[in-house]
Amino acid sequence: MTASPTRIIVAGGGPAGLIAAGRAAENGTSVVLLEKMPRPGLKLGLTGKGRCNLTNIAPLEEFIGHFQPHGLFLRQAFHRFFSDDLLRFLETLGVATVTERGGRVFPESQDAGTIVSALVRWAEGSGVRIRTGSRVQGPVLEGGRVTGVRWTGADGAPRTETAHALIVATGGLSYPGTGSTGDGYGFARTAGHAIEDTRPALVPLVTAGGIAARLQGLPLKNVKLTLIVDGKAAVSGFGEMLFTHFGLSGPIVLTASLAAVDALRQKKSVEAGIDLKPALDEAKLDRRLQRDLREHGRMEAANVLKLLLPRSMIPVCLELCRIDPARPGHQVTAEERKRLLAWLKDFRLTVTGHRPVSEAIVTAGGVRLSEVDPRTMESRLVRGLYFCGEVLDLQADTGGYNLQAAFSTGRLAGEAAARFRS
Asked: HEC string of the chain?
């Protein structure tokens, strides 16, 4: 192995890798960041639909609760660098932020590229050497510790470089076009780590039949979604969702999706129940229906429902409730009204699958957390090997939580690696 002054090598130029590299360099170490794509931060540039939902201003305990069942692993990282610290850090880089509904924080520019550019400038300004088109092949291990890294450059030639520490920040399996192809799982296995089963999380769901396709493009706000697994309510959420040509998407669907993915893998039945009027219990909604049908009794049922539903949902509603759309409101029977009430409170769709991991926002599963020290992000099995970001078995709801975890674990890994003495 050819000697090199490099002390730390960071594999991966996403949010965790950039902040890990920059922080390690700030602490006086020589750092090289190897990114296999033409430029760093490609996936970060897509987050939040290109707007970059950086973090969330939720308090610490609530924040940790969004990472069930492994949120406590992040307590040390969040205590060292949390959302308020991130916002102050970005301010020093000249990045202004805004807080929107639900505590979600975005760059004021509404452009994820602002964050990527700022992080790259900061990392390079701190002394990080960023090499793009450079694919890490794995760590070199001797005597239970990292002694180097094998990688190939843009020319395809294999190289081995001495390093006292390797920080693995390669991401998961989602959005492989940005470079997230699960490389870090292989590095971890080489070092003897177990990988918890990887699968898509925050992923749209596929439903049976053509109902969703008929409603394609229709967004719903202020509705409640309940995932029913083998006939029992599993998870539920309130907010926004979207019908697509294949099924369901939108924030509350994505948040519930991992429960659906896991249930389907276990061959369980899964349904999505949508409460279209969660602000009204059944008794109040029934009184509302009776009043509307009475006061607008001469109107056709299809027109009466315009008072309750988006126009494109009305034909689907009447068909599923077996109500003649041309029937005058005052002629709708008690039994038909009962069916309508039940449908409005529990519109069911059978979930048959999910979109592939390549379309998931994050990957569930990853490096087993019991084998990583939460105080440093260092491997408990191999000295000088660190993991941060999505490669770990950590995943949260939408809302900026996952990116904060990437920033926090990355910064902690960078600081710890800079202090490391082999």
From this structure: CCCCCCCEEEECCCHHHHHHHHHHHHCCCCEEEEECCCCCCCCHHHHHHHCCCCEECCCHHHHHHCCCCCHHHHHHHHHHCCHHHHHHHHHHCCCCEEEEHHHEEEECCCCHHHHHHHHHHHHHHCCCEEEECCEEEEEEEECCEEEEEEEECCCCCEEEEECCEEEECCCCCCCHHHCCCCHHHHHHHHCCCCEEEEEEECCCEEECCCHHHHCCCCEEEEEEEEEEECCEEEEEEEEEEEECCCEEECHHHHHHHHHHHHHHHCCCCEEEEEECCCCCCHHHHHHHHHHHHHHCCCCEHHHHHHHCCCHHHHHHHHHHCCCCCCCEHHHCCHHHHHHHHHHHHCEEEEEEEECCHHHCCEEEEEECHHHECCCCCEECCCECEEECHHHECCCCCCCCHHHHHHHHHHHHHHHHHHHCCC
- Where are the chain's structural domains? 8-199+363-419, 204-354
Tens digit of each residue's pLDDT, the chain (422 residues)? 444 457 999 999 999 999 999 999 999 999 999 999 999 999 998 888 889 999 999 999 999 999 999 999 999 999 999 999 999 999 999 999 999 999 999 999 999 999 999 999 999 999 999 999 999 999 999 999 999 999 999 889 999 999 999 999 999 999 898 889 999 999 999 999 999 999 999 999 999 999 999 999 999 999 999 999 999 999 999 999 999 999 999 999 999 999 999 999 999 999 999 999 999 999 999 999 999 999 999 999 999 999 999 999 999 999 999 999 999 999 999 999 999 999 999 999 999 999 999 999 999 999 999 999 999 999 999 999 999 999 999 999 999 999 999 999 999 999 999 998 65
Q: Report the top-level CATH class of 204-354.
A: mainly alpha
CA 198 – CA 290 distance, rounded (Å): 50
Say yes or no: do domains 8-199+363-419 and 204-354 share a fold: no
Sign of CA dihedral 89, 91, 92, 95: positive
Domain 8-199+363-419 belongs in CATH node 3.50.50.60: yes
Nearest Cα neighbor of 368 from 201, 200, 146, 185 is 185
Q: Quick check: 184 and 391 in contact, CB under 8 A?
A: yes
| Distance from chain centroid for Cα 314 | 33
